Amino acid sequence: MILILIYIIKELIMLLTFKIQLRLNDEQQSIIDAISNDGRLLYNYFLGKLKEQYEKDKTFISYYIQQKELKDYKSDYLTFDIKKDILRTLHNNYSSFFKLVKQNKDLNPKPPKFRGKDYFFTLSFTQDFIIKENILRLSYSNYRKLDVKLDFIKPIKNLICLRNKTKESEIKQLKIYKKNNHHFASITYEKQENILKNIDKTKLLSIDLGKKNLLSIYDVENNKGIVYSSKYLSKNQKFLDKRLDELKSLKNSKKKYSRKFKQINKKLKKIYNKKKTQTNLTLQKVSKDLSNQNKTILIGELTNLKKNIKSNYKYLNRQMQNNWNLQTFIHLLEYKNKLKGNQVIKINEAWTSKTCCKCGNINHDLDLNDRQYICDCGNDINRDINGAINIYKHFMGDYNPPFETLVVSERFDWCHINQMNRNYKFY
């Protein structure tokens, strides 16, 4: 009998986002800020009308009714396309507010608020922009144009960008926002990918998400285990957390909005941003490393991990909930593997860490400090690798790895923060 493997290929359109910092001169910056300020005023104007109508007869004005009023709203910088997006943002905020009220009134959700004069309103463009080579051209009111040079455009290089965002236009949306007094552009583009539905069961990576280590891998093809050690990353994050706690305590002792209060708040934001950047870089790097292996990935469901997230160690709880951001890691892993035509399959990981991968015995007395799984059957293996093998066994149904040749190693080089800068390629 001849066995024929049929590969089912399905075309999928993915929406990806490319972020870049804009190097603006004084004139360009003043124009962008003026457009944003006009957007803020429009948002406040229609928010005021919504509040006024609700206080009058407890009714809510629909988006379509207010959209008709946009033509009569005069602005020095806003095009009709930007006006519609700002109004849509306002009504989306109100929809989220009403949804929270219905779901849980105990949360005491607050309705949308007026934007203050220092607020930078994120600008969203779907039609009034075009990108040619490395020039971003924005259109604003009275047919005026603003050209901004982009320093780095590799992910979107050679992509089609049309003013009318039809199916032929691969670049779909542009958003400009401000963070730490720097302007950034977020460009959304689409990419067609072919997903290979057939799974080669000899080319699998089984991943166990851990508490002390970020993840542990069982490579079926090479019969080896790899632990992505978080020793250096955790040490660095604990140092930043300690500094954040000190500054928070100092901030609470100062008068609100005083000079010292603002200085401490500025330092807090700087450390928060540094911590967030370091975490994002490490998650980007490890997800890239895994996707480059071009194998199907089995990973434990995050819901089960969250149920057992509490431990007797406060620093571990903080690390799992705030620092590692495992939900973001899984999203990164999924989309990067889709780009390469690989699959990410989520497996129920219940009892995988406490179950012997050799004989199936469950050790209920296993503590978090026990990093080796030692069983009466003679199995002596890294605890996290044991969990990764069990996840693979859940997928296969029944499997016993060749323990005689199983090699377990640790990786430390993946989390060297200083080696990754803004030019690091994550794709």
Break the fold down into its secondary structure elements and pairings.
Blueprint: E1 9-21, H1 26-57, H2 63-68, H3 80-103, E2 123-125, E3 129-132, E4 135-140, E5 144-149, E6 171-179, E7 182-196, E8 204-209, E9 215-219, E10 224-228, H4 231-252, H5 259-291, E11 296-300, H6 302-307, H7 314-323, H8 326-339, E12 344-347, E13 372-374, E14 380-382, H9 383-396, E15 407-411
Parallel strand pairs: 8-11, 10-15, 11-12
Antiparallel strand pairs: 1-7, 2-6, 3-4, 4-5, 6-7, 8-9, 9-10, 13-14
Description:
With 427 residues, this protein is an alpha+beta fold. 38% of the residues lie in helices and 22% in strands. The strands form 4 sheets. A 6-stranded mixed beta sheet has the order 12-11-8-9-10-15, with helices on both faces. It is globular and about 80 Å long. The relative contact order is 0.11.
Briefly say what this structure is.
The protein is 38% helix and 22% strand. It is built from 9 helices and 15 strands. The protein has a 6-stranded mixed β-sheet with strand order 12-11-8-9-10-15, with helices on both faces.
